[in-house]
Amino acid sequence: EVGAKVRPLIESQRIEFSELASTRMACPNMEDAKRVTDMLDTAYRYLIDHDRLVFFGPDSRVLGGWRKANG
User: Fold this and answer.
1) The Cα angle at residue 36 between residues 62 and 49, in degrees rounded to 5
2) CB atoms within 10 A of CB 30
3) Quick count: other Cβ atoms within 10 Å of Cβ 66?
4) Mean pLDDT for each 10-residue chunk of the chain (71 residues)?
5) Angle at 29 between CA 18 and CA 58, to 5 degrees
6) Contacts of 21 (CB under 8 A, 6+ apart)
7) pTM over 0.70
8) From CA 8, how far away is CA 53, in angstroms rounded?
9) What is the DSSP string of 13-69?
10) Is 41:31 a contact under the CB 8 Å cutoff?
């Protein structure tokens, strides 16, 4: 589980995360949790495209994202 404060900044789809944290109990693979928190900590902008949420760094490089689960 990853917790954070999220502040979407309306201009140019900017986003800012702070106070990122993860728990070992909810996230037994801490390497995955670290990759997610590193991505969110570096995220500068986001894009929602159909069923995908993509995060970009300050240099416009794609950091990662998620796709909506079917269900």
Assistant:
1) 45
2) 12
3) 11
4) 54 73 70 84 88 90 89 66
5) 35
6) 2, 3, 4, 37
7) no
8) 13
9) GEEEEEEEEE-TTT-S-HHHHHHHHHHHHH--EEEEETTEEEEE-TTS-EEEEEEPP
10) no
